[in-house]
Amino acid sequence: MLVPDKFKGSLSASGVADALETAIRRQTVGGFQAEIVKLPMADGGDGSMEVVEAALGGSAVREMVDTFDALMRPIQAPVLLFDSGRQAFIEMAKVCGLAMLAPDERNPEKTTTYGLGVLIAAAAARGCGKIVVGIGGSATNDGGEGLLRAITGMTPLTITVACDVDNPLLGPNGATMVYGPQKGADAAMLERLERRMERFAAEAGLDTMLPGGGAAGGVGAALHKLGAELVPGWRLFGEMVGLEEKITAADFVVTGEGRFDGQSLDGKLVSGVLSLCRKYHKKPVVVCGQCALAPSIWKKAGVADVFTLTEVERDRRRCFADTAALLSGERTLVAGCDEAGRGCLAGPVFAAAVILPEGFSHPLLNDSKQLTEAQRDELRPIIEREALAWAVTAVSAEEIDRINILNASIEGMKRSLDGLKVKPGLVLVDGNRFSPWRDVPSHTVVKGDGTVQAIAAASVLAKTHRDEYMRSLAREYPQYGWDRNMAYPTEEHRQAIRKYGITPHHRRSFNLLGDEASLFENQETDY
User: Fold this and answer.
1) What would the pLDDT profile of 153-201 be if each residue is shown by its tens digit?
2) What is the dihedral of CA 234, 240, 244, 250, to 10 degrees?
3) 80 has which bridge partners?
4) Domain annotation covers residue 346
5) Residues near 83 by Cβ (< 8 Å), separated by ≥ 6?
6) Which one, out of 250, 436, 455, 489, has a CA that is 20 to 30 A from the CA of 412?
7) How far apart are CA 118 and CA 102, in angstroms?
8) Count of domains for the chain
């Protein structure tokens, strides 16, 4: 299930969901035939109207209204009418939003919420008794003074505010100090804005401690004074689209937004998705443009992994411009890594790294353990011929004993990556343990050999190369049956160890005889 927010300023939530679906189908085994549910979402900010519109289907109608932007310039902005015109949805970002202003126009000492008030009044004049207002993405910090002025004398309405933050109106965690800088305020302006907000709050009787009152530069507090209920935007929209039910049914959840930071975990859509995932014991993945949270924080929040576009494209301007291509994997060479022979009693562990070309597919490609020997042998030359790059390495039994099998497996995969003739932009590794390789971002994928094409291809190469090696080694040590058991801990292999002892190729750090005391683990044969 894909349930992303927008990547602010670069891609809509729908665009993000589409790009993620493309990436999944491009990289996964068999094009991932399971159903992919796309549920682009919002939390009250930019793009919220599109989410509501999609949820309501053909019963909602947009009506354009003459009003004013944040700098009091005449514009037309939409009001979404539904329930036969008895209810309306208004998105603040479409009338006095930050994205509507050029960078040099952003000045919260000049911007006003008057145009938002005009839209609310227009909706009331059209007979709407209930109005939902999404107040994220604003360019303003006037405490709602403009909108209150615009609706003076208006008949009381039932207003619900879709809010994406819980900041109060004043103080170090208030509207001005937290959000003023992104709206164009410098340090000196922040002090002036805070004093102005204090005066207006006292004059208008605003609740300065109300959670969410500081949203949209104080619009939350202003609408609350009119009797509005402030609710988390993600929850409001989630109820419209059946978010909780869909998460309950999902096997895998992906969410995300442009910047994954502390605010993401404090009322934003991502926090809502994470809370539902925790409720139903899901471990979601977050995809973002930039991550400002330490792994310890997002892991504590229940996130399985975070994929960050700036890991792949370090130039932030290009990352911002190429969001869709980066999300879809269009411009990223992905190397898959896997190993074979980790649980064996003898012989090296083999590791492989593979970069497949765009559009590669083969009906047999899957986790090598799910294939017959004949199928693996059929796939191997195809992968080696078609891959943009591939490499296979072996880590000896002696080195396994010295550094342990986990470290040997990781080391083998890194050596294989070193052996690629083409440098990947992203590394995906089967399992749940890896460590950084060079400056390339890497992620582990549990059961990746059965879901990710490049990992599946690496599993085939690692397995076939190791089997070939063990068959050749079996000619030197025929009594162990390595041409049949490939040195896995079969009863045949253990009986041979009991009878003949161990060879220089046995892993002495392993329990070679199973539950019995190993009488031969420190011996070698001369075979």
Assistant:
1) 888 889 999 988 889 999 999 999 999 999 999 999 999 999 999 999 9
2) -110
3) 62, 89
4) yes
5) 59, 130
6) 489
7) 23
8) 3
